[in-house]
Amino acid sequence: MQPHNVDRRKCYERPTLRNLTSNQATLFLVGHAYIGDQGARELLELLFPEPSGLTRPGVGQPQHPL
Questions:
Q1: pLDDT, tens digit, for every residue of 9-49?
Q2: Is-above-0.70 flag for pTM?
Q3: Helices in the chain by DSSP H: which ranges?
Q4: What is the span of the domain harbouring residue 43?
């Protein structure tokens, strides 16, 4: 008599390749940076550098018009 788990084993499935749009890839990267992945943060800084001369406004400081 065969054990019950032999019939329930999954067959091998090849991994599928997903083609992401640039927006999906950016969101994927932002998500990893948000949860604390330092490598993702560094890559975001390389891909999307902040313009020089503009700083992020603090509390009570006016925002720069875009």
A1: 889 999 998 899 999 999 999 999 999 999 999 999 999 99
A2: no
A3: 5-8, 22-34, 38-47
A4: 20-48
Does some domain include residue 42?
Answer: yes
Predicted local confidence at residue 53, as pLDDT: 65
Assess if residue 9 is contained within a domain: no
Provide the residue type at 22 as one letter.
S
Q: How many Å apart are CA 40 and CA 24, to the nearest integer?
A: 14
Report the helix count and the strand count for the chain, using DSSP H and E. 3, 0
Q: Which tokens hold the place of 54?
A: 């503009």
Amino acid at 19: N
